[in-house]
Design brief:
Elements: H1 2-18, H2 28-41, H3 43-75, H4 77-90, H5 99-106, H6 110-134, H7 138-146, H8 152-189, H9 195-204, H10 208-236
Length: about 240
């Protein structure tokens, strides 16, 4: 709340002191008016919902792949040695570098944008899952064996996965943030809907108020989702209720 107030005060000070052209930096009231126009017409919800659907689709896909893969890599050192070179080879490549290939492979449809977000969300979830398994206290594993988890399957389901869950949730939180950033970049390049398209369209027609509305919506949604994942992190942390 205080951050928003501070931004508005600084924004108004810049307008008062430097008087930039409205096409470069509109006053807060003009941006608020554009926000209400897009809000009332429902256009803002369409763009936000489109971006969110793309991110959620890719996030669920990579979660279904990265979590089991991370659990296996953290549990089996031999399997990790086989897969880790591929992870380390592709991990440093920016998700944005995949946008040209995504357009060539999938065109400008939904598949290309979901692919870019999949690349952005895969590695944070994978690495956090691996780290969560490796940080499990051996005493906890031994206690599980003593209390009846004699086979690897029951030990994995009743001890390993629950113990690694806090780290998995942290990885999902980070990956959602990187995916949110990646989808905006992908929509800036090739899209006909979404918050990234809203920003790009505002830039093309010299409407800085529209650009600012899109940026504000990205920030607000990002804060809301981050707060949700913070809640999940506290909910699944050991020793909390």
């Amino acid at each position: 709340m205080w951050a928003a107030v501070a931004i508005l005060i600084a924004w108004q000070l810049v307008i008062t002191l430097f008087r930039p052209h409205v096409s470069l930096l509109p006053p807060p009231q003009l941006a608020a008016r554009e926000f209400w126009t897009l809000f009332a017409s429902g256009e803002l919800f369409v763009h936000a919902g489109t971006s969110l659907a793309r991110v959620l689709s890719a996030w669920c896909i990579t979660g279904a792949v990265a979590i089991p893969l991370g659990l296996a890599m953290g549990w089996s050192r031999r399997f990790e040695k086989i897969v880790d070179p591929f992870v380390e080879l592709f991990r440093p490549i920016s998700p944005l570098a995949w946008i040209p290939l995504a357009i060539l492979w999938f065109g400008i449809g939904e598949a290309g944008k979901v692919f870019v977000v999949c690349v952005a969300t895969l590695f944070p979830t994978l690495l956090s899952t691996i780290a969560g398994v490796k940080r499990i206290d051996p005493v906890l594993i031994h206690a599980g064996q003593v209390l009846g988890c004699t086979d690897r399957g029951s030990l994995f389901l009743k001890v390993i996965f629950p113990a690694a869950l806090p780290s998995i949730v942290v990885g999902l939180r980070i990956s959602f943030g990187t995916g949110w950033a990646a989808i905006i970049a992908a929509e800036l390049v090739a899209a006909r809907s979404g918050l990234g398209y809203l920003i790009a369209n505002g830039m093309e027609i010299l409407r800085a108020d529209k650009v600012l509305v899109g940026m504000a919506m990205i920030g607000v949604l990002g804060v809301c989702f981050d707060a949700f994942f913070r809640y999940l992190s506290r909910r699944f942390a050991w020793g909390t209720t």
